[in-house]
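Session log. Operator J.P. requested a structure for one protein chain; no other inputs attached. Running the standard single-chain path with token output.
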Amino acid sequence: SCGNNYNHKAFQRKDFTKSLALKCIVFTNGWDNKSCRKSLYFCVKVIAVHEFGHALGFSHEQNRPDAPRECQKERQGGDGDVYLSEYDPDSVMNYCNPEWSGGGTLSRKDIEGLQKWYNTPATSKPTIYRNTKETFFKIVNINANDILNIRYLPNPRSKKIGKIPYDKRCVAYLNKNKQYKSSKWVKITYKGIQGWVNYKFLHKNENPNCFSFYKVINVDYDDVLNIRQSSNFSSKKVGTILPNKCCVLKLDESFHNKKKWFMVKYNSIIGWVNSHYLMQQATGVCNSC
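Structure written below.
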């Protein structure tokens, strides 16, 4: 590395959207740092690779909520909002890497993350949503600015308990259907309301964007995350999820006392988990989960 007294500022962008002109400015206490004087190329390379990572949209790895606590003490800059892999101790974007920024060499997860995000031919497109039995519907046959009623029972005279806007595209099916006279009714969940809608207003949506996967965070290694029957902490426990478990499928979301809750499916159990304990993952990551 460049030593304890090494400070740097690399690749300041000059109107990066209009030109690729980058100015590399490396401050090493007047170039007196011996490590960098002897291997200037190495120092510039390490900084360049790291800063190009930022230019491509990547945040610091140690900022992640699933990074070790001692690494999170080195948090710097903005946090990412999409996670393309598990926490990567070897990432060039990680200040906590035992080798300074990975020596400027991309880790395996760095490469996979870039391929997934920029859809390069070297990686396959996300496929896990094809392997799940869950179904999502989009609303059809409803006039613009109209709504689809959610009913307590599967018939048109039953009490209305909710409504879905005409343009919703990812309404989760709860794997229950019933026939009422000549019409088919299915049970769905929308914004925390579970009820019945007429199937003629639904069409199966296989768009992968409907399938959101999450990893468990903020749970100690010797503890578990409780799945609850409804979206509040006093609700009955219906299951548990192990710490750091990944690829938990989200079906719906709702708010209770200003706290966000997710309806999830895990090991055939469907229930509610507080969003504080879940971190969204890129769909492609779950192909190997």
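Operator note: Residues 7 and 28 are 6 Å apart (CA to CA).
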